[in-house]
Amino acid sequence: MTVTPTSQTNPAAAFPAIAGDHWIETLNDGSHVLIRPIRTEDREREADFIERLSPRSRHFRFLGEVRGASPQMLDQLMQVDYHNSTAFVALAHDNGELREVGVSRYAASGDDRHCECAVTVADDWQHRGLGVVLMRHLIDMARRNGFRQMFSLDAAANEPMQELAHYLGFERKNDPQDATQVIHTLDL
Q1: Quick count: other Cβ atoms within 10 Å of Cβ 56?
Q2: What are the pLDDT digits (tens) for 64-112?
Q3: If one looks up domain 20-187 in CATH, what number appears?
């Protein structure tokens, strides 16, 4: 009798084979996600992901009122070279399709030593440890690419980001140019 692995016994079996770096991660609640570098074919997934975010989550991510992703915004978000700019997506099965449930990204900030980062997790996937998983992959990639410091501009009211940044060892200070924002920094 041949036993075929299922997603119940082998989480990797639930995801199609993907060339290149990818990871199957188990979250705090036992659910599994596929983490991999973002690809050009993820453009529509990225748009759907942003559209599904609550207004509060979109505000925290983009530090302003954003209703959805414009073509120009998507062009910018999808433009990665995996050195000066990198993005990782978290994908999970949802009714037979892979759905983007989180994304982390960094971009060089004018020199080859500092990069700005961001992480966003779908509202229904928050509080499972996905933000930590995405950021750890991002931090590791920034280190491998020679960056010395990572920073993030965040809304001062974004308590989940403050908790995540503290957990990952980021230092926090008030933004001297905007009292509604804080700056989180991590020496790599």
Answers
A1: 12
A2: 888 778 899 999 999 999 999 999 999 999 888 999 999 999 999 988 8
A3: 3.40.630.30
